[in-house]
Amino acid sequence: MNYNFREIEAKWQKFWAKNETFKATNNSDKLKFYALSMFPYPSGAGLHVGHPLGYIAGDIYARFKRHKGFNVLHPMGYDSFGLPAEQYAIQTGQHPAITTETNINRYREQLDQLGFSFDWSREVRTSDPKYYKWTQWVFIQLFNSWYNKASDKAEDIATLISIFDKEGNTHVEASCDEDTPLFNAKDWSGFSEKTKQEILLKYRLTYLADTEVNWCPALGTVLANDEIVNGVSERGGHPVIRKKMTQWSMRITAYAQRLLDGLDTIDWPQPLKDSQTNWIGRSEGASVTFKVKDHDASIEVFTTRPDTIFGASFMTLAPEHNLVSRITTKEQKEAVETYVEATAKRSERDRMADVKTISGVFTGAYAEHPFTKEPVPIWIGDYVLASYGTGAVMAVPCGDQRDYDFAKHYNIPIPNIFEGVDISEEAFADKTNTIIANSDFLNGLSYKEATSKVIAELEKLGQGEGKINYRLRDAVFSRQRYWGEPFPVYYVDGMPQMIDLEHLPLELPEVEKYLPTETGEPPLGNATHWAWDAKNNKVVSNEMLKQVRDDGHSELDSESYEGVYPLELNTMPGWAGSSQYFNRYMDPHNDETIYSEEAIGYWQDVDLYIGGSEHATGHLLYSRFWQKFLFDRGIAPKDEFARKLINQGMITGTSAIVFRIKNEDRYVSLGLKDKYSTDPLRVDVSLINPSDELNIDGLKKWQPEFKNADFILEDGKYIVGREIEKMSKRWFNVVNPDTICEEYGADSLRLYEMFLGPLEQSKPWNTAGITGVHSFLKKLWKLYGALNDIEPSAENLKTLHKTIKKVEEDIESFSFNTSVSTFMICVNELTSQKCTSKSILEPLAILVSPYAPHIAEELWERLGHSESIANEAFPEFEEKYLVESTKEYPISFNGKLRFKLELPLDMGKDEIEAVVMAHDKTKEQLQGRKPKKVIVVPGKIINIVG
RNA sequence: GCCUCGGUGGCGGAAUUGGUAGACGCGCCGGAUUCAAAAUCCGGUUCUUUCGGGAGUGUGGGUUCGAUUCCCACCCGAGGUACCA
């Protein structure tokens, strides 16, 4: 009987679905194990062979843990809001929900055919109102919270209000907007309700603020930095300007330090931790206040080198700095305004990309040096970014290359404040070998000493303090898009109001068009039913609002008209839905709470999270932020959601190249191409056989341009060139898992993906190699052809147990590629031993089952079992079967292996030396020389020196 | 520029704390089976060689009886990041 993988795989996939073999329970006496793979965005292109790599690894681990007796949670779902579906909707008018549904069904078919042990009863989709109800709910919790720096956690906004009632905000230590005014308890009680709301908004963890964004008027939307190329939109090439817009933001900066500290507590890859660390960008230094001469104003700067303050010969403000217009003198007004305008036209990325051009303008104003009281000229320059620090720097040209270049360019003095350092060519930025000079009370001090001294002096003057600055900025949370979560927000008198939980979800409205409105509002502005009736708590027609406007009343008066208010028109960004989905899987159908305490009390957190490294500073940072918030508010028991994380590497494609002779319809084989002048052309990789030979008939049918082409062959074959590059439709090198499954089966594909190499590494795909693992499966199948209850031989047991040991170690260390080799060795050995013993072949089936679950189930059934193999206990390794009595020692001379000698393992060092030295081959090697030294490591090696 | 990861046969890769470099698989070569092919099975396959051997894990040094493994300097590739004050 042959190995009929198509029949076997279909049979067991049906069996698992029907019996809900992988359904996890939320209460169990077993230990829990939560294995999670990042859920996909269901794109129209479907899966290629690179996508399942991480899923296969996660599935092997999940199945292994099941064999080890754990209650395993291994869910899957879809991150189903997103741009491609919306883009398609704009082009075709098809509702993104329909596109998304179609794509999900396709994904599900592809995933099912790979035999994953997912608990599909827990599937979530971020675009499902039942799911995004809870995304909206978390948003509301963030809105109703503030960050108390004293307790170092998020608290209910009510506790902040009671502090304001008692003592105003003068003493409270909270994360809040920079421009928050100070007030006392009496002020607070005198504020109007609207003023109170405005002030609270400055403290809430999600808040409305005017944010500078990249606005593309032609597209009617905000663009992310990477959607802009050379100052114009990547799509369409439309101009982009920077514009202030009122947007929802997330106060992630409140968590900067905890996000940094938490990295030490989790087992994540170092490069990923490093990129989060860099992204958060903590720097220690001081804030220094410079008074502006002849103005009632001061400029605060942040510097990491307060020790160099006596070297400050000018200051530079970002052109957007709000003091610029105030302090600029009449004479400089025109020049400054021209410069500011020119800068506004450039995107921030544009400015950052152009590092070489030095530009700036003198404002005409001077600041006063805190210590010398000397005037310091104030310049503006676009090398200072408004969004970092305070948007102003004290320029120390002798110690900072950018300041140095600027000073050189504009002939500003460069005082040297370093002892024995030449600064005629470049600035001296070394902190470690610094001795400060020409600096009054700092003379002779090191960087460290000078820094603490100057901070103390600044504090005495009330003009500065030690400060820690973060590069991390609050995250803009509004998108001018249709296909995202609606905010559960309506506006009364311009102030945002949250919709109560019992009325959630607030579902996306239907719209005629998915583009921005003619008046520049987001797509939701096209909805005709998008107003909130606050009395009846439901979405109503915009007509209810319209009446108000038609009456000549302003929108703000709408309260008097039936309590109907406008709803928020923005939607949430892509990362909203993925920031807590791992918790929702624990109790995905709960309609009363986000998840029950029982469910999260049992599952706690993710034990193993597998996904791509491209999410390092997006999803993985935002999720950690949300988790810490949920932890602070008592909603989650752990403040890190994933203990261990693994990044699977990319699988690259192996493109196939034919060589067209220039200006001819002829193609030349790889080996002969140097005789002609040729252009390389990529062709579909499915036309190539394992020996790099081209299927010429197939090519002629593939695309019309090859129909009448001639081919110059070598040895009767056309050999293609190969190039390793990213798997992409445009290179025709995408390999679809469906065709692999059809030809070789899912078990072969699973094994081969693991066999390619270490999980974390990027590696090229080459379909040809799959025959190796496929014939391994055939050999495995054959091994179970004749089964009996014969006692296994010592040899059989040795093979089995060394396999158990190696495979278990490999899985625990995520070294799945070496397990596959181990299986091959095992099957090769058992085949040559003609092993038929069930007591060997039963445990072997279990060992193989995490990797190749379909064949394992089938073999298990043939072994006479009626239950699934999935929950069988993993075989126990027993050392005793591996104990050897002899060892084949390598005998080296000066570190080079010369011959081998079998000796008993219990032979002592001296005895070994004696036997080896007496050996004929040793004498032959030494040729009469006397060895200087003989190294004997029992059980390992013998090395003779001399 | 900075940070991180990597560099081993024709190819993917293995070598667990410094101890037999190249496991396992692909490809290739030879053979068996077959009318023939596919499939299957067996043998070989780092390079070089005067068949004794010699060289060899990106390059050059070092530590060691012994280095793919540890240390120093450099080269190359991939990814991340960048006027961050």
Topology:
Blueprint lengths: L4 H15 L12 E6 L14 H16 L3 E3 L9 H10 L3 H17 L16 H15 L1 E4 L4 E4 H11 L17 H6 L2 H9 L4 E11 L4 E3 L4 E2 L2 E2 L7 E10 L5 H7 L7 H11 L1 E11 L5 E6 L10 E4 L6 H4 L2 H15 L3 H6 L6 E9 L6 E7 L10 E4 L5 H9 L37 H15 L2 E7 L4 E2 L12 E4 L2 E4 L32 E3 L4 E3 L2 H8 L13 E3 L14 H4 L12 H7 L2 E6 L7 H14 L9 E6 L3 E11 L4 E3 L9 E6 L12 H7 L7 E3 L8 E5 L11 H8 L1 H10 L7 E2 L5 H14 L10 H19 L3 H17 L5 H11 L4 H10 L23 E8 L2 E9 L4 H10 L1 H7 L6 E5 L3 E5 L1
Helix pairs in contact: 1-27, 3-4, 21-22, 22-23, 22-25, 23-25, 24-25, 24-26, 26-27
The protein binds one RNA strand of 85 nucleotides through helix 10, strand 11, strand 15, helix 14 and strand 30.
Account of the 3D structure:
The structure is a single chain. The chain is an alpha+beta fold. The chain has 29 helices and 34 strands. The chain binds one RNA strand of 85 nucleotides through helix 10, strand 11, strand 15, helix 14 and strand 30.
